[in-house]
Amino acid sequence: MARPTVDPKHGRGLPGRFRPFSNTGGPGGTGPATSVPGGFRHGMRAFRHRDFRIFFFGAMVSNTGSWLQNLAVPFVLFELTGQAFWVGLAGFAQFIPSFLLGPLGGSLADRMDRRRILIATQSAQALAAFVLWGVWVLDYREPALILAIVAATGVFSGLMIPSWQAFVPALVPKDDLASAITLNSTQFNAARAVGPALAGLILAVSGADVAFLLNGFSYLAVISAIWLIRPVAVERTEKVATGVKDGFQDAVSYIKRRTGISVGILCAMLVAFFGNPVTQFTVVFARDVYDSGPRVLGALAAGVGLGAIIVAPALSVWADKIPRSQLVRISLPLYAVAVMSFGMAPNWPLGLLALLVLGGAFLLVISTTNTAVQMIVADHMRGRVMSVRVMGFTLAFPLGSLLQGALADVWGPQVTVVVFGSILLAVAAGLSMHPTVLGRLDATDDTPNR
């Protein structure tokens, strides 16, 4: 396993730079409080650690391949069926297994070697990617078969994601955690920009088979990276529930006593349900609204990731200077407005502009709330708590995608997106009217609510 993180409550077994921070000053809570360093270089500080650098670049290559497939699958389903509902089904098939397997994935992440879990599940996902390529080149192009393979990938992803979420904080000491989470979100969104842009070009020139094949090979990068990371055993100072059900119940009870974690999960679910399906429906907008081909589709899908990349340097600075609650109070309604703007855009250049804003706001909300959860949770609960967060997101996204897909066939895609963006804006305004609730995102330890 990679470097251990601190037990926030006890600080046991962690020498030197791994001593815990407190609100009374520096490491271990000794000495006077010091000002928080800032600036772009400080925001990049997670790159000082070898294991994080290796993981970062391996994950970015793999995620680029995943985004090739994430665009190619809805594209071919829409081409085969001509129905937005099938596009929604693609998101449902991909993410609902992650929700169902969340408790098991979280239990495994807290009981087993997370590094081995990642290698096994990434290898299984690579195999599924090659199977998808194989059935396509052999001309077995049934929508139901494609969805079945996507669902199989979702099963392995459901077992993997809690370990992935818990693995990243273990690559750096806690004082560099915010930087690591921001940079990890940045690499994901960099892949989200590059992958769809490549997919648009590949779909126009070579076809979906090349996109599926490249995705399979891309898994080799992250598997190699995880093998190269130096494993260091984590000292587990707290007893972990042996049963999946008991472990999940422990996580839910733990979250209920810590409003900051609950709010962080809620915000992620709101984004996933009301706004994230937009990334799937770029396929529908490109053809039915903008009357364009794969190249415009690639540009639209890449716009979300590009917007996140543009905002990432600023976020690396803001993360240490602006309270997390304030970042969410600004970025969540901004995200909602961007969703509405995309729905109202009459042409693809204006749609692309709205997606750039949407991508930047997405990074702000998701990275900030993820940082809040990771800063609050104790390490012995990290895998199970992150599995609950993943379950919330992976339930909200496929349900939102499925519902919006069905409504888009009745109302039209533009009206559907505007309606859902409007609802999200109203909810975001309601949260902003309760600053004490959002203020819980600023907590820095796992102390229960009083």
Question: What is the structure about, briefly put?
Answer:
The chain has 450 residues and is an all-alpha fold. 75% of the residues lie in helices and 1% in strands.
Number of domains: 1
| CATH H level, superfamily name | MFS general substrate transporter like domains
Helix/strand/pairing class, anyone? mainly alpha
Shape: globular
CATH class: Mainly Alpha
The residue ranges in which pLDDT falls below 50 over 5 or more consecutive positions are 1-36
How far the N terminus sits from the C terminus, by CA atoms, comes to 35 Å
Average pLDDT reading = 82
What is the CATH third-level topology name?
Answer: Growth Hormone, Chain: A
Question: Would you kindly provide a written description of the structure presented here, covering whatever features stand out?
Answer:
Helix content is 75%, strand content 1%. It is built from 17 helices and two strands. It has helices spanning 40-43, 50-81, 84-100, 102-111, 114-137, 143-167, 177-205, 208-228, 244-256, 259-275, 278-289, 294-318, 324-344, 348-376, 379-411, 413-432, 435-438; strands at residues 21-22, 25-27. The chain has a two-stranded antiparallel sheet. Strand 1 (21-22) and strand 2 (25-27) form a beta hairpin. Helix 9 crosses helix 15 and helix 13 (324-344) packs antiparallel against helix 16. It starts with 20 loop residues before the first strand and ends in a 12-residue tail after the last helix.
